[in-house]
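Q: Could you write out the predicted structure for this multi-component system? I'm mainly interested in how the pieces pack against one another.
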Amino acid sequence: MAPLSPLGRALGWLSPPARGAMGLLWIIAACVPSVTRPLGLSITATLALIGLLLAGGSLKAVGLRLVGVLSFTVLTVLGLAVLPSQPGATLVALPLGLAAPAEGLFFVLDIAVRAALLITVALALGRVFTAREFLLALNGLPIPTTPRCLLYLSGLSLSRVKADLFRLFRARRARGGVRGWSAVRSSMSILGVLIVRAGRSAERQAFALQARGFADRFPTLDDESPSLPLPELVVAAVLGGVPVWLATLA
Amino acid sequence: MAGNAGLIAAEGLCYAFPNGVSALDQVQLRVHAGERVALIGANGAGKSTLLLALAELLPCRGKVRRAPGCRVSIVFQDPDDQLFMPSVLDEVAFAPLNAGLARPEARKQAMAALERFGLAGLEERHPSALSIGQRKRLCLAIAMAMTPDLLLLDEPFAGLDPAGSRELARWLGGLEVAFVLATHNLELAGSLTERCVVLQGGRVVLECPTAEAIADADRLRDMGL
């Protein structure tokens, strides 16, 4: 995880669990906006971008991650335009003389918009926490044991999968690279390799956890306070709750 | 187990992978307190599987018998598979804390283990920020923080340059516990262990003093070594 950013330092007086609660609310706020509620959507998008920039994140990083979202959106919209729609459905005109049902179109756009917001918020949050604070936040929040462990291990494996992905793409470039349909096919193979490797790595990690007496928790040497102090909880609720409310504005 | 029975004994261990390929076939192995055993074999001979079986991490046919109270620690080949805490100190304290030790004692134990393996001063670092040699030593510190009677080492020299291997061998040489060392490095196996067990196709094909095995180059070559 990235070192602490200006936003991280500004929020540094909040304990990791309080920041974790606030982060969870930010994630919820990113899932609420809809293209049918333009005010809430534009406010959330603005807040997400401000948060990202204050956190020291880059728009380029967001853009790179939006490629997948964009491909999904284009392909799904094309599918909607090509497949026969229900009789009586309201159609929206698209470029190239195509038309798609409004209901389906808004649904797809909502997914795309929320995915883009989630990416932006996740990148900003990644710069608000160090790896250790992330674990302290999880340990301090009232999350059931299994989801907590899964969240931590998932966060951990993301960086490993990313490193693996870069190595595989570098290997592909070293062999001359591919273009067009071949690139899509080889990307699918790379995805398959990644899944197999992630499975093997998870198996070895499970052995390591078992060998080290894993007992459904990732304890740290810092004291884990059983409950959050009330003032911190109030601040976290306000800082996280206001964006959720703003996102619902029509 | 007591007396001649040893610290740990594998009796008729058999294991097959889910695809049906046999990895261990009627393996017999006994390790006594304080003994150092090299586990040698070509790639795919079953060394790592045997270590997992000895650590009772694999559901095998046959038996693994441990002396009463015998604690076993394992160090995996790839350090990244066993490092999952966000700081070096938390990593070493993980097992003691999970064993129910109070935080001050766990901290003390972890600090002592780090100091012992030359990692003092790196407590707050993220494990991924360490060099490969340091990560290997961290894995040793993690294993030793569990105060084992027997250490299982899976290719600890893999990925290290000759100087790094020699340095790690120096740390291993200073351990006071019994260990089983799976390795391809015959030279270091010879300097660190008294006895060696050679695996081929999941079976024990040779068991003799390490120096004797290394001296018989023709036989080792026949075994794919």
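A: Regarding packing and overall arrangement: Chain A has one domain: 6-247.
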